[in-house]
Amino acid sequence: MELKVFRIARQQVVYYFDAAFADLSQLADKSTAILLTDKNVFEAHKSKFKDWRTIVIEPGEQHKNFDTVRYIIDRLAGYEADRNCLLIGIGGGVVTDITGFVASIYMRGIRFGFVPTSLLNMVDASLGGKNGIDFGLYKNLVGCITQPEFILQDVSLLNTLPEEEWENGFSEIIKHACIKDKAMLDELARYEIKDFQANQAMLDELIRRNVFLKLKVVQKDPFEARDRKLLNFGHTIGHAIENSCGLAHGKAVAIGMVLAAKISARETGFDELEKLKTVLNNYNLPTSTRFEAAQIFEVLKLDKKRSGEQINFILLQKTGKALIYPIGLAELQHYLHSFEKEQ
Ligand code: GLY
Known about the structure:
The chain is α/β, with parallel strands linked by helices. It has two domains: 2-160, Rossmann fold, CATH 3.40.50.1970; 163-342, Dehydroquinate synthase-like, alpha domain (Up-down Bundle), CATH 1.20.1090.10. It has helices at residues 24-27, 39-44, 66-78, 93-105, 119-125, 163-180, 182-189, 193-198, 200-220, 235-245, 249-267, 273-282, 293-300, 329-342; strands at residues 2-8, 11-17, 33-38, 54-57, 86-91, 111-116, 130-135, 138-145, 150-152, 306-307, 310-318, 321-328. The strands form three sheets. A seven-stranded mixed β-sheet has the order 1-2-9-6-5-3-4. A hairpin with a 2-residue loop joins β10 and β11 (310-318). The longest helix is centred in the middle third of the chain and has 21 residues, at 200-220. The protein is globular. The structure holds glycine (GLY). Residues 125, 128-130 line the site of glycine (GLY).
């Protein structure tokens, strides 16, 4: 296990690279820790949960809601969990988002840590401290920013990951490359998912590079006042179509990135749209979908990046260079209607 300490705001987050699930017993005491996972992860790794007090929730974004929060709190109370309890989320982004949220409100806040089991969660969702739940069609409308005490990374957990989840993970990796790392996009263009699945060292290196990239951005701007907003590239329209069109997060973000790149082409002169589409295709990610512009626009109006009559959109100037770019709601509505016809 290789340990790296990141200071984010006034909190300390310990990232354990090259670790194994079994190392959890060195980080947590079974008498005070409670594991939180979903049914899929629990079924795939049942023996690992033996002897740990465990709360198992339903899998899927549709369960990232108040009903599940209520269920978890009920179970914590049933275990008589007190303020010494350490809640450990083991799973994908839904599990870790809800773990961080419940831990932040239960008894006004208890300690928490994460063991991400999906690629997307290893390189993105488990990092940064944003925790929360959805509210109807509105993604992450309710939540907080509090950092986990630790993140334990066991890459062998990816061995049981369905192919679609690899694709979702690569969507966020491509996003990181688009906003901050042109060399990484050039490298990604030369490979496919199966190359990373077949080469553990290459996969480890890619995960590490993305963890460092994201945490560097978060360390500089933990509460998203400035540059951290760039990590939302592809997520403004992406989030709106994710729940409205019932798409997986990575796929929705891939389409969101293409649409943001098209807006970039008109607003900033970005001229690498075709390259972005080619890389997304390499990783089996979609570049378009049918959607109803009017419905997407209604969801966008409640986007957290809205400020009065404008939304702070993330556009690309070129690969590796993103910028915050206010777009008027009326202009955005116009773009959405023209994209609807193109799909
Ligand atoms: N939990 C995801 C983030 O903070 O960006």
